[in-house]
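Appendix B. Chain record.
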Amino acid sequence: MNKQLILKKIRDGGVIGAGGAGFPTYKKLETPVNHIIANGAECEPLLYKDREVMIRDQEFLFQGLSIMKELTGAQTVTIAVKRKNKDILDLYKRTANKLAFNLFMLENVYPAGDEYILVYEIIGRRIPPGGIPLQVGAVVDNVETIINIARAVNGHPVTDKYVTVTGAVKKPLTAVVPVGTSFHDCIEAAGGSTADDPTVLTGGVMMGGVQTDLSLPVTKTIGGLIVLPSDHYLVGRKTASKETYRRIGHGQCDQCSICTELCPRYLLGYPIQPHLVMRTLLMTGEAKNRHSLWAQYCCECNICSLFACPEGLDPKNICSDAKQLLQEIKQVRQPDELAGFFTEVHPIRKGREVPIEMLTQRLGLNAFEKKAAFAKVDFNLQRAVIPLDTHIGAPALVNVAVGDTVKRGDLIGIAPDGQLGCSVHASIDGKVTTIDHIGIHIRASNF
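Structure tokens predicted for this chain:
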């Protein structure tokens, strides 16, 4: 294998993290590691896309893992899924044994898919505070990312995305969606919304964003569109203004510390204590800056705000604000501080994990807990909008002009030389009509 050629195919194929922030995958595979972990945890409630990926693209998943193993020289490869998907482990057993890959079953808890938790559970080592899995000799990738590696090496760039469309829709489903498909078209494929005034949570109910503009495009990083009535509890929590959640937190936090005691990163020993960050609402100056440091290693999983706090306060957003302040003033924990504050794993950590069933009930989502099984959908798109900047790093450079005719799979945005980034490709046949801050707009040939 020519390692540089394979890495170039992965980069030029537009492979980025399909289940998170969109980190360009080729970069993770440049460094030798001991462990590769395929993340099939399906961390958020209501989502089924990872399950469908693992069932429908088993061959590409094993092929992608074999490519990753050869590129990195890894000694162990582990596929991790939750207990609710134990049947997938049974399905994989024969091939995994043949390839000497490990199968690992996680409990049905949130956030089991957090890479800090995965690495600790599987290899028994903790990633340094603020660090990445490479620092403990591991690479973690979502299962869909791994099948995209195999496809890219075989000459097929990323043009589609597995997406679960669920919530307040008539027929919840998981489908293969062309990148750039509008939220509206996805919801219509699921039978349309059952809510008169729908709001969409993008990605997941815990860590996802909130959108009411249904013309926005599906990107390579969106794994779920959860449609909810605009008056749903979660929509209200996620759209509260900074002035509102800070004012309420200032007046009502009684420092019970439950937000900290249930924080997954705190339970792993990391120096994150949301209840201490809540105190910053009463502080100014250096005292505020110093207490903000207790937010530095927050992963924004939202357990503190949407599950733990008995007052319904918002420690997650207070932590996010504190991290922004720390960036502005360029203040971080010093190494000697970390040595004292990075403690042992909490002795009753396992007893404080949050079951998905309990979380779903607490969030008022039981009515939407319906299986979103795979459905083959012919989207017959009128248009697609391909973003250039949904990955970490430099945006792709436009490689087409308005009026150009493109085919599905054509390179329309190039990763800049010498910079972290990835290319993007047309997901439909058509003509380029507009290039703007959203991306490259393509009108389908048959419209």
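Further analysis of this model is presented in Appendix C.
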